[in-house]
Amino acid sequence: MRPGPDAPLPVVGELFAGRYRVEALLGRGGMGSVYRVHDRELDERIALKLLDAASTSGSSVERFRREVRLARRVTHHNVARTYDLGEHGGLHFLTMELVEGSNLRDWLRKFRPNPARVVELAGQIAAGLGSAHAAGIIHRDLKPSNVLLDLSGGPQTRGASAMRVALTDFGVARMSAEQTVGGGGRGMLGTPAYMAPEQVAGEETTPATDLYALGLMIFEMLAGRLPFSGDNAVALALARLREEPVALDEEAIPGAMRPLLARTLARDPGQRYVDALAFLAELDGLRGELGAPGARTLTESERRVDIEADTGLATEMATGAPLGTVGPGEEPRSGPESRTGIGADSGTGSDTGSGTGSVELRSRAGAPTTTSRRMFGTSSSLGLGRRGKPLAVLPFRYRGPADSAYLVDAMLEELTDLLSQTRGLEVSSAGATRRFGELDERDPRTLGRELGVALIVDGTVQLVGSLDAQRSQGPGDRGPRLRVSARVLDVEGGFQLWSDRFDGEFADVFEIQDKLCKRIAEALRVELEIIGDDVPDDLEAIESYMRARSAKLLWRLRGPDGAIALYKQTLARAPRFKAALAGLAFASMRGWFLPEGDVDADYDWPRECAEAVAMAMEWAPDHAETRVAAAALAIQNADLRGGALHLREALRIAPTCALAHEYLGRLLIEGPKPARGVAHLEQALQLDPELEWCKGDLARYKALRGDLDGYQRLVDELSASSDRYRMPTALMQLRVGAWTGDRSRIEWARDQSDPTSWDNAERVAHTLAQTLLADYDIAAIEGFYNVAMGQSSNTRAQTYFTQIIAEQCAYHGDLERALHYLEVAAELLLTDALWLDNCPLFEALRGGQLGDEAAQRFATLRQKTRRRADAVLTP
């Protein structure tokens, strides 16, 4: 039974499910609420966690069940007990131990433990983790708000004055054996501020991942702060990828604990303790060296400087750090502090939270050749005033023949000019920085203070070979090679935010210079567009926004953990956050194109997309992403001219917006000016090498123009670069195989796909390959078509499926039926004049070989398609 969105939640005093008397609402997250209830059958107070009616999709309920299954596998004094899973009136709930007391985050706001107390607490945390690890479970979201403190202690708790620790919230926990299932350990799962480097990088998680989080908490308990800095949680997470391991020599860290902390916080998980029990064995050896456990009460001034506030994060999360904090529209909780065994921390990725986002950090393949790159992340100094972020470009270091050193001056001028045109930056003149060209030591903090800037662009230019030698050689001989490396440095922190490298012939110097300038400008633009808004001070809003942004980049758009849901959670807390409004509009339009599944079969895509775009256009019209989303909606409504105008406005706002170049290129390559489309797609790929499907569009263009060698080169590049495009490439291969009569391409596509896969694209590719390779079976082909059309309300997606069915019929020689489906596509939203004019399967239709009536029908649909395609060019 699935409840309606307005299903009533329990109220205080109500008897829920005939058994649980509701006593208090303890907290509420993005997907659930936690109550203190009295179990009448057992005469015991427990915690009841309820999945909200709006979150009862299949995947949400399955995650709810998963949380219970995993938590029940761990039975230990230092793990909060989970009792049961139930359903009442269509609402899913679980029951678990009620821990009377506080959580570690709240407690640290009031007290500073001495080293002996830290060892005692860390020992209990490690013991609980050890039990989970022994059961094959990795927590993956360990943090102070998920460590509950029972102030009454207990008979199994060491020390007469000790507090009992109870670990909670296994919402993003995972069995070790599941690391390779459904994407393995890929993706950023957990709370960014407490993530291990391998989590931030989207790599496999192990018990050592939990130990890294424990090491951060130990450092925090001793020093009163986290060992990394950044003005939001994601900046904290990224810092551990680019900063050296933390220094442990400060006074607050006892010498006896430094070796243990250094090993626990090692960047390489292989250098950490193998599991919690190994860590605990070494920790136990410290107990006699640190005296008696204790804690001092923080002064008022110390309390005001909260640990999370020190890093630029909001300290009062509506359902985050303390469950006792209330959200908008909620009543404050009275009575003694209570903590459930489920933390309602919306930054956790748990069911009551903002959902699990995923960040995947990968190197990018550049052009001509990019061999090194770091993600540009927000640093502690990236706060942006209304006037813009001050930046300076230093003269690049030069290595090569003296007669070519002028390259440095030319590049300084070019970079300065281009970056000066980037919205949100104030760039120092080339004259102001030229004097630093002879410096060997370039400390960014020193130079930044002298220049009065927050960011510095620095780099090297290396020329291998002599121009004079080249002049004496023949015209076919290779010239000198040029390598340009660039980086963006944060003045306040002194660390590197972004880097890239370009290789090429000396003759390519202007092309390399142009690409370098645009790549830096785009990397800065994306971040500055966000920071330039009125960014909310709400940690939950910031974290859900960053998760949404990451999920969107990975095309994880739908469901409770998808970008759309996460953007909505952000906007529920920060309704006028422009970057989130623009992101929701874009993710909604992208999500609408995908076939629908059970997770959101009831979602009203036309209405939701129209509302998201309208809100973004009202409050964030100056964001390039808003304009790209508005373009997609206009085109979906058959207004191609309006869509093209939005894309051109996006490029006026941000000339380096890769998404706008990609979309405009995709439209133009289908119309009467395909060369312009090619140029935009190549530009998009240069600006953002992760937009690799631009290669798919370019490959398809080459195939339709008869350049199969060029097509195959791009297909090979796509196949070698990432598994992400395996199925889109397979779909393209089977289509090109049908166009050219090459069964080997179709067989390759079939062999790449699994008909039993959870991935809808794999099932589609396999079905289409089979219907091409088998004898003509129109019932099977049209059966697939009817299912595909029923799974999407998006007109462009429906047009795509109709094009494929027309190809299938033509491949099997049924040109009359192929013509029918071409007419259906034209009635929908066919804009692909390039395909219609060049696809070999329709040669007989273009040549009028089916008679005058068929020729007239084809001419009519071609004219309609051409008129749409031409609209893109209309000013």
From TrEMBL:
GO function terms (MF aspect): ATP binding; protein serine/threonine kinase activity
Q: Which residues, by range, are in coiled-coil regions?
A: none
UniProt keyword Thylakoid present: no
Residues binding ATP are 49
Tagged with keyword ATP-binding: yes
**In what ranges is there compositional bias, type Gly residues?**
344-356
- Span of domain Protein kinase: 20-286
Region ranges (Disordered): 311-384
Q: Which UniProt keywords apply?
A: ATP-binding, Kinase, Nucleotide-binding, Serine/threonine-protein kinase, Transferase
Cite the CDD domains for this sequence.
STKc_PknB_like
The record's section on PANTHER family has:
MITOGEN-ACTIVATED PROTEIN KINASE KINASE KINASE 20-RELATED, SERINE_THREONINE-PROTEIN KINASE NEKL-3
- This chain's protein is named Serine/threonine protein kinase
Organism of origin: Plesiocystis pacifica SIR-1
- Give the lineage: Bacteria, Pseudomonadati, Myxococcota, Polyangia, Nannocystales
